[in-house]
């Protein structure tokens, strides 16, 4: 597992998000292929509480121990960002801090809960408290005392009016566990961390930490979502903009649709039709080209299936109309459609000319006008039928000018 690890610094000390590193991470780990089968884990805790050690043991990463202190502004921004993007937030704290009025974790929890009171996540966050250097005090007792601390801090937060009486469990799936001292009992610490690791792969119903993923965004949109969230946090806004998942879904749907439609020029069936059109009309032109376009849209549907349905469908309708008018499609479809109409017109005129020549020779003086009219109507009907067959389902309402 260690050799498969890919680590990088996402946000610098100057508050710059490393978008290039995040995109490289996504490519290296094939993250975009995971759909919604992924978990973003963040960790918070007092200074020198062993956060790096815990992460390195949990996930075989190689985070360095950090020195120095972050400013209050950056600390709050980091907390906001972590809560907005993480599925699981680990709160790393000392056992001996439980119940203490001025414990190191109290300001941190206030920051966390103030951020959550702004309600910018549509799904619950799993909040995992990891109590370090477990003492002889039973875990059940520590869990009860910590729960009291948590509820007291939550109750003191100034919630939005509509959320004043909202229970903590409406925002979080709260879990509390404890670990022995890494310094004095490394073997036992490592064993218990290994067991804790397994819980990240199990649903809550089975004692795990993996929450309900139905409202979560596909992994392919994670880099953009991170960028949008950090931008909003840096602008010191209350994250009351359209939810990041809306912005990501809109962007990704547009990106995917444009990419699929841009491949129209390279479609083998289309290229063969283009060659055939140089010499004459193509049978079932409209149906064949409609199928090519429908295939593009089906691929779009497959790649956006994990995005919110209303956004996906609305964006699909808009993109279908918008993308079909883009220069790339106009350059490909419009000339082919016009070529097809020219062939139909040319064939209709030739057929009409031949038919009229025969009519002139055979028709009587009294029936000449009716014969010519019948001939013209017949050829016009055939031309209109050809035009109908050449019509492309998705674009028949557009004016090809």
Automatic annotation (TrEMBL):
- Does the record's keyword annotation contain Zinc? no
Q: Name one GO molecular function term.
A: GTP binding
Domain GB1/RHD3-type G, chain residue ranges per copy: 1-213
- Keyword set, alphabetical order: Endoplasmic reticulum, GTP-binding, Hydrolase, Membrane, Nucleotide-binding, Transmembrane, Transmembrane helix
InterPro entries per the record? G_GB1_RHD3_dom, P-loop_NTPase, RHD3/Sey1, Sey1/RHD3-like_3HB
Q: Which GO terms describe its biological process?
A: endoplasmic reticulum membrane fusion
Q: Does the keyword Ribosomal protein apply?
A: no
Q: Name one GO cellular component term.
A: endoplasmic reticulum
Q: Which family does it belong to?
A: Belongs to the TRAFAC class dynamin-like GTPase superfamily. GB1/RHD3 GTPase family.
Quote the protein name from its UniProt record.
Answer: GB1/RHD3-type G domain-containing protein
Q: Which organism is it from?
A: Salix dunnii
